[in-house]
Design goal:
single chain, 796 residues, mainly beta, Immunoglobulin-like, Methylamine Dehydrogenase, Chain H, four-stranded antiparallel β-sheet, Metal-binding motif-containing protein, Put_metal-bd
Length: 796
């Protein structure tokens, strides 16, 4: 559209607003400044272009503003235009308003802001606040055509709070600027005035110019002390230590006398300190005979007393008195003969002479009147120290025994002697070596210097002296034991819900697990490795973590046995006589066993290199140094099932005859080229010893088929009554009271060394467990086929 807009007055700005009728929120605006155009130029052309997303019907508003585009709107016209054809549509608009004086302002009667449309010099008027009503205002003006209430058109008031100050007022002598011009009291005659602070009619200080005297001001200024009305020129001099007449002399012309300093106020002065005055100054008197002007009790009128002072100022000190006193340093009323003072007054710490003198004036308990005690001191100053206690069978220094040896010495009450033999320390049998003896043990008294018996402790609060994890001052942990001997196991929620739990994790799945091994050199037992059929292998690094799978990392061998070194690596033995080592990242070595039998057991001992022993089901014992291939040590007609030991000086092998009656066998290897059979191994024919564990150099356990459980105490093996009829598959015994066994239906049991406890865990559904292992009673693992991985304690 072409907008042709004409206007008939001196407008300031023409504005066009366009809006889409179908969508009122779509708007556009344009302006043109037109102020002071001549009568023939009062027309503008504005182009309005419809936007692509607008409808074809537009609402148009044309507006004229005073003076500028921000001025008042004084004329307006509206149209609705439909753009129904192509091309440019012309719209003509006329905007009319009144501006008689042509100043660009429209009169207020026509909607503008011009107060006087007949005068081009007047548009808005200024009005000023007149608070005091004197016809003159002040401050910022208010614009408008009519003065608001209390406003006037004149400004210039210098104080709008009072009618006494305004332009045009007459200046009067009142200390203010009445006419708001040329300052205070301008044009008036001024005189000099001075402050009269003491109101004595004479002033002082700086001059003040004024037409009349200000308050407290006078016309004279020669006062020598304007703070004292008793001092000014012309006053008569009086005896008051002041210069009354201001002639710079005090008490001049008055009669004077001599006065003496009386510092102690006793009425007698000091001759060496005097003043000539018309009257006695404060602290001065007319007499001068005091011999000590610092003490009021010393003067010529005082009474002499015995106090080492010349109280009456004549004849010296303490005339008529004298006495000897003896030092009593310990306050026991007996003095020291060699330390005396002479004087009429008893000195502090001194006493009058007594019939006998003190033999120790530094000890109040020692004097001629004291009772002799047994304390290595001559308390009564007679006959030496401790004279009543140096004879008889209980005399000081005589021998005694109770049962430890000693001598008689002074007792605590110091009224006799007692034997100083030290008390013996009681020791009690500590069979489990946990530092706490059995509660029922008999005390063995041991004197200082005597040897403490082996396997004893100075406490006897252990409720189970066969179990090192239970003692009277123990800390309860989650291990199914009464660790602190309070008759309750695992109290105060130490397990926090943890218990025997089967683990269900992706790395475990339903795989057939044959062996589990833990790090025996770590207090936590971690890492834990499990291995089994067809090369399955997994590792758990810490409590609460999940297993990481390494399936196939060391091939597809079915792993039957595992051992973990102190650095966390696992060593494996399995089918086809294969052995391997995995360090947690890669399978770092794999070797075949000489002879090709299936590896069934492995045990290792840390060193550089690590020393391992491996057995197979062909009855071969192999030595394996990490980093090298295994070497065959012995070959027997046996079926080896398992091997264990606590160091490489002796290992025990669980086995079965390979022919004949297939009886159970246990062999020992202590070095060299051969193993040796062990006695006392019993069991029915066709009974294999499946698992073996050395607890110490003199304790071991073995389990096998047909309920066979055996114990070794350093000699022959002996049978342990089984807890139930079962084929037992594995055993671990980290200590003699923690013997854990598994069987082929999935039950885990514990033997305390004297009795079997109720089953700790039973698999559901029933199924075999192949291996069990523990580093301590609070970390136990068992595995079996079908994804069975059992842990205690494990949170749900």
């Amino acid at each position: 559209m072409k907008m042709e807009i004409s206007f008939n007055f001196n407008a300031g700005c023409i504005e066009v607003r366009a809006r889409d009728q179908a969508s009122p929120d779509k708007t556009s605006r344009g302006t043109v400044e037109v102020f002071n155009r001549g009568a023939t130029e009062r027309q503008v052309v504005i182009s309005v272009q419809r936007k692509d997303d607008w409808s074809r019907t537009l609402e148009l508003v044309s507006i004229a503003h005073e003076r500028s585009c921000s001025g008042a709107e004084v004329a307006q016209a509206s149209q609705t235009v439909t753009l129904d054809t192509a091309g440019v549509k012309t719209v003509k608009v006329a905007l009319n308003a009144v501006d008689e004086d042509g100043d660009g302002y429209v009169p207020t009667s026509a909607g503008g802001t011009d107060c006087d449309d007949n005068d081009g010099a007047v548009s808005q008027r200024s009005f000023y606040r007149d608070a005091d009503g004197d016809g003159y205002g002040a401050g910022e003006p208010v614009k408008g055509c009519v003065a608001p209430s209390q406003y006037v058109a004149r400004d210039g008031d210098c104080d709008d709070t009072t009618t006494e100050r305004a332009p045009g007022r007459a200046e009067v002598c009142d200390g203010i600027d009445n006419n708001c011009a040329n300052g205070i009291d301008d044009g008036l005659v001024l005189s000099s005035f001075y402050l009269d602070a003491d109101h004595d009619g004479v002033g002082a200080g700086p001059v003040v110019k004024a037409c009349t005297a200000p308050p407290n001001h006078v016309a004279t200024n020669n006062d020598c002390d304007d703070n004292d009305s008793e001092r000014k020129p012309g006053l008569a001099e009086v005896c008051d230590d002041k210069d009354n007449d201001c002639n710079n002399r005090v008490d001049d012309g008055l009669a004077v006398s001599t006065f003496y300093r009386d510092a102690d106020g006793d009425g007698f002065g000091k001759a060496s300190d005097s003043q000539q005055k018309c009257r006695a100054p404060t602290g001065y008197v007319a007499t001068s005979t005091d011999c000590d002007d610092d003490k009021a009790a010393v003067n010529p009128n005082a009474q002499e007393v015995c106090n080492d002072i010349d109280d009456n100022c004549r004849n010296g000190t303490d005339e008529g008195f004298n006495k000897t006193w003896y030092r009593d340093g310990d306050g026991d009323t007996y003095g020291k003969q060699s330390d005396s003072l002479t004087g009429c007054m008893q000195p502090a710490g001194y006493v009058a002479p007594t019939s006998a003198f003190d033999c120790d004036d530094g000890n109040g308990a020692v004097n001629p009147g004291a009772t002799e005690k047994c304390n290595e001191i001559d308390d009564n100053c007679v006959g030496g120290a401790d004279e009543p206690f140096t004879s008889g069978t209980t005399r000081k220094g005589a021998s005694c025994a109770t049962p430890c040896s000693g001598i008689y010495v002074c007792n605590a009450a110091q009224d006799g002697t007692s034997c100083n033999a030290p008390a013996p320390t009681n020791y009690y049998t500590d069979a489990d070596g946990d530092g706490d003896g059995a509660a029922s043990a008999t005390a063995q008294p041991i004197c200082p210097g005597q040897s403490v018996p082996a396997n004893t402790a100075s406490r006897n609060t252990d409720c189970d002296d066969n179990d090192k994890y239970n003692k009277g001052n123990g800390t309860e942990v989650c291990d199914q034991r009464d660790n602190n001997c309070d008759t309750t196991a695992d109290e105060n929620n130490v397990c926090m819900g943890a218990g025997w739990k089967p683990l269900v994790e992706p790395a475990i799945g339903t795989k057939d697990w044959n062996t589990v091994a833990i790090n025996k050199d770590s207090a936590s037992g971690y890492p834990v490795w499990i291995a089994g059929a067809n090369g399955v292998l997994a590792r758990r690094n810490g409590a609460g973590e999940t297993f990481t799978s390494f399936d196939g990392a060391c091939g597809t061998t079915t792993w039957n046995a595992a051992w973990v070194s102190s650095d966390g690596s696992v060593f494996l033995a399995g089918s086809g006589g294969r052995v391997a080592q995995h360090n947690g990242t890669t399978c770092v070595q794999q070797h075949p066993l000489p002879g090709g039998g299936n590896g069934t057991g492995i045990i290792g001992f840390d060193g550089s290199p690590t020393n391992l022993f491996v057995v197979d089901d062909n009855g071969r014992l192999h030595s394996w140094a990490s980093g090298s291939a295994p070497v065959q040590v012995d070959d027997n007609a046996r079926v080896y099932r398992d091997i264990h030991g606590i160091d490489d000086t002796r290992v025990l092998i669980a086995a079965q005859e390979s022919g004949g009656n297939h009886k159970p066998i246990i062999e020992s290897y202590t070095g060299g080229g051969n193993t040796s059979g062990m006695g006392g191994v019993t069991g029915p024919n066709d009974t294999s010893i499946r698992g073996i564990w050395m607890t110490s150099a003199a304790i071991a356990y073995a389990v096998g088929d047909s309920s066979n459980i055996l114990r070794w105490g350093g000699g022959n093996w002996s049978a342990v009554t089984p807890p139930a009829t079962a084929n037992y598959t594995s055993v671990c015994a980290p200590d003699r009271t923690s013997v854990y066994v598994t069987d082929d239906v999935g039950v885990i049991r514990r033997y305390t060394g004297t009795q079997w406890l109720a089953p700790l865990y039973t698999a559901f559904p029933a199924g075999p467990l192949r291996d069990v292992v523990s580093v301590n009673p609070s970390n136990i693992w068992a595995v079996g086929p079908g994804g069975r991985v059992i842990h205690f304690p494990e949170l749900p």
